[in-house]
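Pipeline run #58 for the internal structure catalog. This entry was flagged by the ingest filter as a single-chain record with no existing model, so it goes straight to prediction. Upstream metadata was stripped on purpose; only the residue string is passed forward. Reviewer on rotation: M.T. Logging verbosity set to normal.
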Amino acid sequence: MNMSGQREAIDPLAAKLDLNLRVTDLDASVAWYARVFGIEPIYRGVDRTLEGAATSLVCFRLGGVKLWLLPGRAEAVDARAQSVGIALMTRQNLAPLRAALMERGAAFDDTPSAGFPINSDGVRVGKDAEFIYMLDPDGHRIEYCHTY
């Protein structure tokens, strides 16, 4: 209720999108994201439970979205079977972008995909868009997509 006793409207979209990724080695992943994207984290800290258990976390801003890296859990499954995908839409040509990312140590998922052949520059080509899949140290797939 607000000051006048009326109920305030609830808007489920009054939020900002953040993504959380569980990683095997937090320090190695932070170094990889900083090197490959050429940026430093915007936040490093600890999240504590009411009982005082602490979890280290680091945040980067990628494409306007906060990406939080947290230590993986023992029961974690293979990252390649991730249920959350990261897609960065770009107006840049992907061939030079891929080459620049490779120079920074990025690896790519070049597994064939029916209907989307990979050209000589390592870019998947579709009718309406082209894309590349980059892999972070835990195998999380980060897509760059360029629409025509």
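catalog note: The CA atoms of residues 113 and 124 lie 9 Å apart.
catalog note: The chain has one domain: 18-147.
status: ready for reviewer M.T.
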